TrEMBL record:
InterPro entries: Cyt_P450 (IPR001128), Cyt_P450_CS (IPR017972), Cyt_P450_E_grp-I (IPR002401), Cyt_P450_sf (IPR036396), Cytochrome_P450_fam2 (IPR050182). It is found in: Membrane. The keyword Iron applies. Signal peptide: none annotated. Belongs to the cytochrome P450 family. PANTHER family: CYTOCHROME P450 (PTHR24300:SF302), CYTOCHROME P450 508A4-RELATED (PTHR24300). Coiled coil: none annotated. Keywords: Heme, Iron, Membrane, Metal-binding, Monooxygenase, Oxidoreductase. Pfam families: p450 (PF00067). This is Cytochrome P450 2K6. GO terms for biological process: organic acid metabolic process; xenobiotic metabolic process. The keyword Transmembrane helix does not apply. One of its GO terms (cellular component) is membrane.
Length: 133
C-alpha cells in the first residue's frame, strides 16, 4: 500500500510532533567547505503532500531527510514498533470508518496549527467516524 505508507510518512513529516533541538535552517542554498546545505529538502515544505514520499511511478520512496525518530546513537528505541503500530492502526481505522468534521463544519475550518508545548500536539477537534458500508 504505497499511497497509505506515503500518507503516514507525510503526516509524521507535516505534524513534526517532536521537533527536537533548536530549529536551524539556511535562508538560501549554501555551499560551505564543500558541503552543500539546501534551503529545504522538500518540494512543498509547508503543504501536506504525500508526493514527498512517492516516485513518478507512484511507488513509496524513502527520504534521508525524514527523521521523526531522530538518528544515530540516540535514535528512538521503539521506532520499529511505532512504525508498525502507526501503519496497522491507521489502515484498520480507515478500512472501517470515514472520518469527517461534524455537520456544518468544513475541513477548511479546522485549525491545524500545532498546540506547541515541547511536543507539537494537535488542537482539540470534534470528529465524526462514519462506519464504511
Ligand atoms: C510515533 C511514535 C514515536 C516517535 C515519533 C518517537 C520519537 C523519538 C525520538 C525523536 C527520540 C529521540 C530523542 C532524542 O533526540 O534523544 C526517541 C527516543 C526514544 N524512544 Fe521514541 N518515539 C516514538 C515511539 C516510541 C515507542 C512506541 C517506544 C517504546 C516502545 C519508544 C521508545 C524510545 C526510547 C527508549 C528512546 C530513547 C532512546 C535512547 O536515547 O537511547 N518510542 N523517540
Amino acid at each position: 500500500m504505497p499511497y497509505t505508507d506515503a500518507v503516514i510518512h507525510e503526516v509524521q513529516r507535516f505534524a513534526n510532533i517532536l521537533p527536537t533541538g533548536l530549529p536551524r535552517a539556511t535562508t538560501t542554498n549554501v555551499l560551505f567547505r564543500n558541503y552543500y546545505i539546501p534551503k529545504t529538502q522538500w518540494e512543498t515544505p509547508d503543504t501536506f503532500n504525500p508526493g514527498h514520499f512517492l516516485d513518478s511511478a507512484g511507488k513509496f520512496m524513502k527520504k534521508k531527510a525524514f527523521m521523526p525518530f531522530s538518528a544515530g546513537r540516540r535514535v528512538c528505541a521503539g521506532a520499529s514498533l511505532a512504525k508498525m503500530e502507526l501503519f496497522l492502526f491507521f489502515t484498520s481505522l480507515l478500512q472501517k470508518f470515514t472520518f469527517q468534521p461534524p455537520p456544518g463544519i468544513s475541513h477548511l475550518d479546522l485549525d491545524i496549527t500545532p498546540n506547541f508545548s515541547f511536543l507539537n500536539r494537535p488542537m482539540p477537534h470534534k470528529i465524526c467516524a462514519l462506519p464504511r458500508t
